[in-house]
Inverse folding.
DNA sequence: ATTGATTGGGCTAGTCTCAGACCATTGAGG
DNA sequence: CCTCAATGGTCTGAGACTAGCCCAATCAAT
C-alpha cells in the first residue's frame, strides 16, 4: 500500500499477451457470457476482424483454436459461419476445486471483490438516475425472462440481467468493466450445482434489486446487490471448504 | 440496450492502439497521476520494459516522444534516467472547454459515471471489510498528507488519497480500474481553478469518507464518496455552462 | 587520474501482425 | 440446372515488434 504498490499498479504489463491470445480470450468471453448464444453464429470474419481491430489472419487463428477446443463449429459457404457449440458443463464440485487451484486463491478473492465493487457501484448509479419508461421496461423484461428461464438458459439470462444494469447507466466503460468482472468468475459460477432453493433465493434478491432501482433508492440498491453477490460468493466458498 | 448493444460491448477492439501508443498512454498515466512525482525518475529502461512487457526499442520510442513533448528530461550515465519535468498547467476555463471539446460530451459523461461507480464501489467494499491497524494508519496518513498539502502538491496527494481506498481493498483489479477511471478525468480536474472554498469543502468530504470507512458503515461510505465526486462533477460542469 | 558499476543509445536478425487480393464452397432463387 | 451473393480459405509483401548484443556516457569510490 506504499508508493511502490502504486508503481506496480500503473506500470503493469501493457498487453496481456499477443494478439492471438487476446483474441481467443475475447471470443471465449462472448461465448461464455452467452452474448452469442449456443446455436447462433459469430459475425462474418471480415466484420468481426474489423470490430476487434485485428487482421483476418489473426482472427482465423483464434477461431481455429476455439474450433479445435470444441467451442465453435465452422461452416463454409453462404449462410455459413462460426456457430457456437459450447454449453456450460454439468456442475460438479470436483471441477470447481480444480479451477480454483488453477486460478489461485488470491486471484479468486481479487475477482470476487472486484465484481462486488463494480456491480454495487453500477446499481447505485442506476438507482440514482431518473429512468425513462423504456429503461424500466428493459429492466423488468430481463427480470421476467430470468424468472421463466429453463435450467438450460438460466446462467445466460442471469448474466444478461446483471449486465443490463450496467448497460442502462449509459456508461460504456462501466458496462465493459462489469462484463469483464463477470467473465472472471463465470466458469466458477457454472460449476456450482443449481439447487431450486438457491434459484428461489436468487429470484427474491433479483426482485429486490429491481425494486430498489425503480424506487430510486441507491442505498437499497447497493445493499441488495451486495447481499446477492455475497450470497453467491459464500456458496462458492462453501463448495471449497 | 438490446442484444446488439452487448455485442458491441464484448466484441470491441482487442487493442487500443499499437504498442508504442499504449506505452505512451501508460507512462503519461504514471506521470499525470503523480505516481512518479515531478523531479523523480522512471525506473531504468531495462527494468521498465520488462515490467511493461515490451521491448526496450518500443519503450525508448515512447520515452522519446514524452521527452519531445516536455514531460521528461532524459540523462545518460550512472545516476541518470528519465526525470519527470511535467507539472500540471495553471488552471484556466479556456483550456477546460478545449479539452472537453476534444473529448466529446458523451465520453465525459461516460468517464464521470464510471468513476462514480467504481470509487463508490471501492469505498463501500472497504468499509465492509475489517481493517488492520496498519490499514487504518495508511488511510489516516493519506488524509493528513492531503490536509497539509501545498497548492503545488494538492492534486497529486488528492489522487494518492483516492487511489489508496481502492488499494486497501486488496483487489489489484479494483485498484487498476480506479486508477484508470481517475486518469480519464485528471486533465479536466487539473484545469479547474482551485479556490480555498472548494478545498475546504473537499477536506470535509474526505474526512467524512474516512470516518465512514473506519466506522465500518458501507452506506455512509458510499454516500460520502458519491457526494464528493458529484460535487467535483458539478464544479466541472459549472465551468462549461 | 583510474576504475567499475549503472545507465541511456543503437544495431541486427528473426518473428508477429497486417492489408489486400484472390480462390473455394455453399445454398437460395430464378 | 444455373447463377450469384455471402462466406470461409489461402497467399504475399510490407511494416511493427522483439530479443539480444555491444557501445557510449556519467560519476562515485578509490
Amino acid at each position: 500500500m506504499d508508493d511502490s504498490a502504486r508503481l506496480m499498479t500503473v506500470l503493469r504489463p501493457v498487453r496481456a499477451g499477443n494478439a492471438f491470445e487476446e483474441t481467443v480470450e475475447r471470443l471465449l468471453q462472448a461465448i461464455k457470457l452467452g452474448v452469442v448464444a449456443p446455436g447462433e453464429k459469430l459475425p462474418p470474419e471480415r466484420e468481426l476482424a474489423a470490430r476487434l481491430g485485428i487482421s483476418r489472419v489473426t482472427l482465423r487463428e483464434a477461431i481455429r483454436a476455439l474450433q479445435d477446443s470444441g467451442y465453435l463449429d465452422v461452416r463454409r459457404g453462404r449462410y455459413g459461419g462460426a456457430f457456437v457449440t459450447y454449453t456450460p458443463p454439468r456442475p460438479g464440485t470436483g471441477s470447481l476445486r480444480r479451477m480454483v487451484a488453477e486460478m489461485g486463491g488470491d486471484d479468486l478473492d481479487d475477482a470476487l471483490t472486484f465484481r462486488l465493487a463494480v456491480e454495487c457501484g453500477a446499481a447505485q448509479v442506476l438507482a440514482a438516475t431518473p429512468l425513462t419508461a423504456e429503461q424500466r421496461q428493459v429492466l423488468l423484461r430481463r427480470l421476467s425472462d430470468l424468472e421463466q428461464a429453463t435450467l438450460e438458459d438460466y446462467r445466460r439470462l442471469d448474466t444478461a440481467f446483471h449486465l443490463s444494469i450496467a448497460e442502462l447507466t449509459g456508461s460504456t466503460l462501466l458496462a465493459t468493466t462489469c462484463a469483464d468482472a463477470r467473465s472472471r468468475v463465470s466458469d466458477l459460477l457454472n460449476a456450482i450445482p443449481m439447487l431450486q432453493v438457491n434459484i428461489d433465493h436468487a429470484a427474491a434478491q433479483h426482485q429486490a434489486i429491481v425494486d430498489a432501482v425503480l424506487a430510486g433508492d441507491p442505498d437499497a440498491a447497493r445493499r441488495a446487490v451486495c447481499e446477492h453477490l455475497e450470497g453467491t460468493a459464500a456458496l462458492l466458498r462453501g463448495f471449497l471448504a
Q: What stands out?
A: Chain B touches chain A through 66 residues (CB under 8 Å). The mean pLDDT of chain B is 95.
